[in-house]
Design goal:
The protein is about 70% helix and about 0% strand. It has about 110 residues and is mostly helical. The two termini are about 30 Å apart.
């Protein structure tokens, strides 16, 4: 593997983003109970499952792109970062507590 270290770091960050978005997806599905906080999203529970699931898939796609050095990976990373900020913000606007699981994707994408 003759890759620059920075691409492996970016692949690791994308993998952490995928993991944090997956945890939030499971929280929206009710598989993981995070205290007394019931997550809410602007389109309802299933919109949150879809959007955080989509963010998980895009982050995994970005991880694959960084590992295999694909030319399109920079644009996918920008999309991943946008969803990493927009999804938790939308959940917060809908009434989800600030210190819920939705804060994880923001911290990772920061």
């Amino acid at each position: 593997m003759n890759r620059p270290m920075s691409t492996l770091v970016l692949a690791g960050v994308a993998a952490l983003s995928a993991l944090s978005n997956f945890v939030v997806t499971l929280h929206f599905l009710g598989v993981i109970d995070w205290g007394d906080d019931d997550p809410d999203f602007w389109g309802g529970k299933w919109a949150g499952v879809f959007m955080f699931g989509l963010a998980t898939a895009i982050a995994l796609f970005a991880c694959y792109g960084w590992i295999t050095l694909q030319p399109w990976v920079m644009m996918i990373t920008v999309l991943m970062a946008f969803l990493g900020f927009a999804n938790p913000f939308s959940a917060w606007v809908a009434g989800t507590e600030t210190m819920s699981t939705a804060i994880g994707p923001i911290i990772v994408n920061l």
